[in-house]
Design a protein that fits this description.
The structure holds two protein chains of two kinds. Chain A is mainly alpha-helical. Chain A is built from seven helices and two strands. In chain A, helix 4 runs antiparallel to helix 5 and helix 5 packs antiparallel against helix 6. The radius of gyration of chain A is 21 Å and the shape is globular. Chain B contains three helices and no strands. The chains are: A mainly alpha, B mainly alpha.
């Protein structure tokens, strides 16, 4: 893959007839395998007592932090959103942070991957919304505040999906491109600095992708969530 | 100047202009957002976590306009679709 390739889609690793393997597919599967095997090893011997393995401790910290963030941002019970949001965050953060490994091309630097993730969010919003408050209750959100806003609500739904995809793609692609350009003009020291900056950008972008997905999903459940919290408060006082 | 030269000139010039103008607005906006967030943190240090989180999400939203400009200029430079009309032989 050289500097002219805009995304790792163009760099074909292996081709047979019409079946071709590009960098995006290979590294996506690598990240998925890493996550699955890593968490399988960590959860093989779970213990509830004091003596836990360090990997279990590590995973518990991660899951606990994600749980807390979801609860703080959405003001709802995190258990329902944890699988989806946590998966998005862990996949994006792993592929973004592994980008500093030489020879690894982050799959998030390809528009196909980010578009797929953004479409997942686009589908998840009505999914959670309908599961939460029924079909009519969800559709009612589109004609709020007035039915005049219907087209704008629909356009907003689509354009924020596009924004979600292009934001992640642009950030990761620019990081890879800047590193490649600097390697050509100042190969000694500067690429390391830019890679360190890329680590920070990658982490923040993964966080932002997950938080925005959560905000979109939670805003479609807002009315229900408010009622739920009121019921809980009443239960607490009673 | 023939078509190839014209497209080259227009693409490179537009790519430069795009990223130059497109980065001014987000830069001003982000600077303002960070300044406001810092003064808010200085007034209410207890709310640092919440302010920082909102700041980062907001910065990413603001920055995305600059990222769009960057993507457009990259497409103009490296994946310009107009080349396909004048250079069919190379296959883009």
């Amino acid at each position: 893959m050289d500097i002219k390739d805009l995304s790792p889609d163009d760099a074909v690793l292996w081709q047979w007839e019409f079946v071709s393997l590009n960098y995006t597919i290979v590294y996506t599967w690598l990240v998925m395998a890493l996550l699955v095997i890593g968490s399988w090893f960590a959860t093989r011997r779970l213990s509830a007592g004091r003596n836990m393995s360090r990997w279990q401790n590590f995973l518990e910290i991660i899951v606990g932090t994600i749980n807390n963030q979801i609860r703080e941002v959405s003001q709802q019970q995190p258990a329902r959103y944890l699988p989806f949001i946590g998966t998005l965050f862990l996949f994006i953060v792993t592929s973004n942070l592994l980008a500093v490994v030489p020879g690894f091309h982050a799959p998030t630097a390809s528009l196909s991957t980010t578009a797929a993730l953004a479409i997942c969010v686009l589908v998840a919003v009505p999914f959670f919304g309908i599961a939460n408050q029924g079909l009519l209750g969800y559709l009612k959100l589109y004609v709020q505040p007035t039915p005049l806003m219907l087209p704008f609500n629909v356009i907003g739904e689509l354009s924020r999906t596009l924004a979600l995809a292009v934001r992640l793609f642009g950030n990761m692609m620019s990081g890879a491109k800047i590193a490649a350009i600097l390697l050509a003009i100042a190969p000694l020291f500067f690429p390391i600095l830019m890679n360190a900056l890329g680590l920070l950008t990658g982490l923040i972008q993964a966080y932002i992708f997950a938080i925005l997905a959560l905000v979109y999903i939670a805003s479609a459940n807002q009315a229900h969530g408010r009622r739920e919290s009121r019921v809980q408060k009443e239960k607490g006082t009673a | 100047m023939d078509n190839i030269g014209l497209i080259g000139v227009a693409s490179i010039f537009t790519a430069g202009i795009t990223i130059a103008i497109g980065s001014i607005g987000p830069a001003l906006g982000e600077g303002r957002a960070v300044a406001q967030a810092l003064s808010a943190i200085a007034q209410q240090p207890d709310e640092t976590n919440r302010i920082t989180r909102t700041l980062f999400v907001g910065l990413a939203m603001v920055e995305s306009t600059a990222i769009y400009c960057f993507v457009v200029s990259m497409i103009l430079l490296f994946a310009n679709p107009v080349w396909d009309y004048v250079l069919p032989a190379t296959g883009g």
